[in-house]
Amino acid sequence: MSELTHAGRYEDGSMPVSKPNGFGGVDPQAQPETGAESSAPTTSTSFKTVQQSEGPVVSSKIKAASPALTKAMNAKKGFAAPVGKRVQATYPLQKPPKNKFVRVHPASEYRLSGVLTLTDLDTSEVYYVSPDLELPDFISSQTRVTDLYAAQMSDGSMFIWPLHRSETSWFRAAKAAIRIAVSKWVAVVARRAANTYDLIEPEDSIPEPDWSSLPPFAEMLESAFEDHMVTSVDHPFLRKLRGFREDGDDE
Fold first, then answer.
1. 248 located within any domain
2. Are 18 and 6 in contact (CB under 8 A)?
3. In CA terms, which of 101, 220, 226, 236 is 20 to 30 Å from 162?
4. Which of 228, 161, 152 is nearest to 185 (CA)?
5. pLDDT in tens, the chain (251 residues)
6. What CA–CA distance (Å, rounded) separates 190 from 177?
7. By the 8 A CB rule, do 131 and 63 touch?
8. Which residues are within 8 A (CB) of 26 and not within 5 positions of it... i.e. 6 or more apart?
9. In terms of residue numbers, what domain contains 187?
């Protein structure tokens, strides 16, 4: 009988065949010696590898920019901003952020005292209210007399600082902050435990504010209030306070 070779074949090249034995089974085939490598890959029914895509990922909605377009866009980034006088488009009505240093315009032409306002408690938006309106008592009691000041942050942005008059220590502290901010840069930080504001001066010098680009204060006010000017009892905000249902409200 031919002897098995190391490759698991007989000397004549034939493979061993399993034969039935007397116990209802088959005799095992002769196996290659330990250390012989199998050509079949190892697979598992529990662990599967991620199928690799054979081609590029293509989407009908998301497309990559062409090399020519990318080159053109990069070239545009090298152009400088237009040269000319910079004018701010809008002037928000807000208190100064605590992380910004602020100055207040020194001229009396850039402040307005005794303006009637209403604050929407749902959104914190402030509305100008015409003093000529006859308001219901429960709405009139919510109005506040407000002083308005043109101000500038250390990053150059302009805004209108509202100061709502009251008998509180907050009002007195804010009024003092505005007075000091006329002549020096300060950050206004609330200290609620004492119902006051701390004024923080910068550790380095900040250039004096440039007010030359400001339009007349009247234009700044119109920009700040814009669609928040209550000049009629039919204004949507007054109708909301009076309990009217607006079109589109759920039945």
1. no
2. no
3. 236
4. 152
5. 555 555 555 556 556 555 555 545 555 555 555 544 445 554 444 444 445 545 555 556 666 677 887 777 776 665 555 566 778 889 999 999 999 999 999 999 999 999 999 999 999 999 999 999 999 999 999 999 999 999 999 999 999 999 999 999 999 999 999 999 999 999 999 999 999 999 999 999 999 999 999 999 999 999 999 889 999 989 999 999 988 876 655 54
6. 11
7. no
8. 18, 19, 20
9. 102-204+216-242
Do 199 and 173 contact (CB within 8 A), yes or no?
no
Tokens of 73: 């866009």
Strand, helix or coil for residue 93: strand
In the numeric block, the tokens 């306070």 are attached to: 241
Tokens of 180: 């000091």
Position 184 in a domain: yes
Please tell me the distance from the alpha carbon of residue 143 to that of residue 121, in angstroms, as a whole number: 12
- The dihedral through the CA atoms of 142, 143, 149, 155 has a sign that is positive
Does 67 fall in a domain? Answer: no
Residue 111: inside a domain, yes or no? yes
CA distance 77 to 69: 13
pTM for the structure as a whole: 0.65
Distance CA 50, CA 35 (A): 30
CA distance 190 to 185: 16
Q: How far is CA 122 from CA 135, 171, 187, 241, in A?
A: 20, 22, 27, 11
How far, in Å, CA of 2 to CA of 8, rounded?
12
